[in-house]
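Example 3.2
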Amino acid sequence: MTHDPIPGGPGDMDEEALKRFLKETFGDALPEGALDGLDLSALAGQANLPQDPAQLRAAAAQMQHMFAAQGDNPVNWDMAEDIARRTAAGTAIPGAPEPTGSPGDPGPTNDQVEELRQAAQVARLWLEPVIAVDVPSTELGVFGRGTWLHRTLPHWKTIVEPVAKYMAGAIGEAISSQMGELSGLDQDAMGMAGDPAAMMERIGGTMFGVQFGHAIGSLAREVSGTTDLSLPLGRDGEPALVAANVEDLISAHSLDPGAARIFLAAREIAHTALFSAAPWLGRALFSAIEDYARGITLDLDALDEMVRGLDLSDPQALQARRPEEMFVFTRRAAQERALEELATTLALIESWVDHVTTQALEGKLPELEAMREVLRRRRAAGGPAEQMLAGTVGIELRPRRVREALAWWDSVLATEGEEGREAKWEHPDLLPTAEVLTGRPQAPRTTTEDPDDALADVEIPTDFDAELERLLRGAESDESDDGDEDGRSEDSGPGDR
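Structure, written as tokens:
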């Protein structure tokens, strides 16, 4: 939002109009006398607030509406969902990248529903003989982009709530600090003036909601189904595909339409079968993501720099911010390990699905290898929406070492058969770790944070036995030297002195 400054610049701003703006915006959160002694003109200039009283009133009404919708939540979910819906529908949002994929959010046609459900029937017939878990018999759901969003949002909220709460507070603290510097008050004085940090946290929650909504709405325009990220985001036991996105994928890569529909349906059904057969798996994935998110940290220096030019009265300006401009994440060693474990589990899921669908479809579908390669490349690079999501919540949902995991599943099938392969999903301890897949030992874990980080850099000698023997010989030699000192041995008693 661009505002022409009134003559005289910020110093000539109508402070009474600005006081009304702040009181109307923050309501009961701003007690009587909280603004006394503040340099409101400097504060308004820092926040890029409009100087015209009519524009201030309009901005106050808009901000008050946003905060009322937010309630006590760390994120303004109403705004996030509204932006997600508009993005999924292909509505151009000022300042945001152009929507990807085919225009709008067309509902599935009768022909598309029939074609995809027939493809799912064929996929089930071909999967049943090669996997030793129940293939879901639930009819394939055929969704529009908005329906995919509606069905998956509850899971996304659970995933991002911990990181959202932290980030809203961090953003609010950065904004509060900036305003405190301008007003000349220290943080204690600002706390006495009605806890500005709490007020600014609401703005932080709004900022996060805007970015998150755009990321999830963009994802709704890219994914083929509810399990593309190897997470169970849909309803239990219900496979589903997004008709418009399936057609976009076929068109973008010139794939055989009939073969591609069977291929994508088979992957969705295989994912659903796995999550139904191993109920612990979905819970473990979401728990791992939540644990990782609770320890997320932002580069606060970068955040302080970002908020200096922030227009607090203009939600559209917030929407125009890219996640990489707003959120710079830092990770501790423990978080890197948690991310490694999550990526390994995702790789085992992705490779198992690739393994069983290839086994089921090989020799039956044209262009099978070409379709597998398309998904491998998408998985390696990640789509624009997936990259935006990683930039917003700091979690890279990228499977690592998929090739190694695929080779492991091949070896299990060769030695233990289909029953043995599927039995690996009965308990997490039966699955290979990153060390097993790579053949390289990882840094040891300890129960405390800092020593653990230090041990990560310790190198164990290649010939450990030889090194141990050398150390022991050195110790024996030292003991011998100590015993000969002053002509006495360790066995010498007091009477020998």
